[in-house]
Amino acid sequence: MQGAVTTRNVTPAAAVAKAAAALASHWPEYVCEFACLGLFMLSACSFGVLLGHPDSPLRAAVQHAFARGLLGGLAMGLTALAIFLSPWGKRSGAHINPAVTLSFLWLRKIGGWDAFFYTLFQFLGGIAGVLISAAVYGEALSAPPVSYVVTRPGPAGVAVAFAAEFLLAALMLTVVLQSSNSTRLARFTPFFAASLVTLFITFEAPLSGMSINPARTLGSAVGAQTFTAIWIYFTAPVAGMLFAAALYRRSQGLHRVFCAKLHHHNQQRCIFRCRFGELYVQQ
After folding, report:
1. Domains annotated on the chain, with CATH
2. What DSSP designation does 256 have?
3. What are phi and psi of 181, to 5 degrees?
């Protein structure tokens, strides 16, 4: 009861003070999230042009649509892996996805204001990455079929796109939680996550465009000024990852979530409610 009273009695001034303190202390991690998602979108736009634009020599050389999808999946999987293992990714934990951040907030591994600023900077980073790409590529990025690499439902329709985004998001977080909280697998979490990115883009993209990331979708939507069924990409990934988090919490217990970083085998500081050192004591 006392905790509930304290929460209700937090004044606006106190909330602003806490937000300012979080920003002053943890801004490097927030900027890392901004930069990492910005780079991810710059890579997505670049490979979108290379593999999708009709005048691209690479598109002309690779005629088969599945082969281009596979190349795109490999390119973005390697991009994700490079981000996860980069100094910036190691510093922030490389969420680069509001759905991931909100799931770790629900799992009590990240503070409220840190989650707010992570999410804000992820959205800003996604938009910035696309706008920078637009300045670099111009018409090549905006023209169909590249169209700012927007994510939109495929021919199977909205319901299939929603289900696909939900299931893939749930699978992604399940793999992250199972591996990052295992002594044997924790150091391989970035490789598992990057491999899923490759597989998802290769095989699922025709159904929903493969986002599982609200910030990634909004970045392209803002650039293209196209917001077709954007509600799917704001709801399905978050719902899917929260569902996976709930299943993990029910089966393993909240005490079996040790940190919110995808990659913890490094010397970078950790701003989360971290108990990673206990992982090797409990197992």
Report:
1. 13-282 (1.20.1080.10)
2. G
3. -110, 25
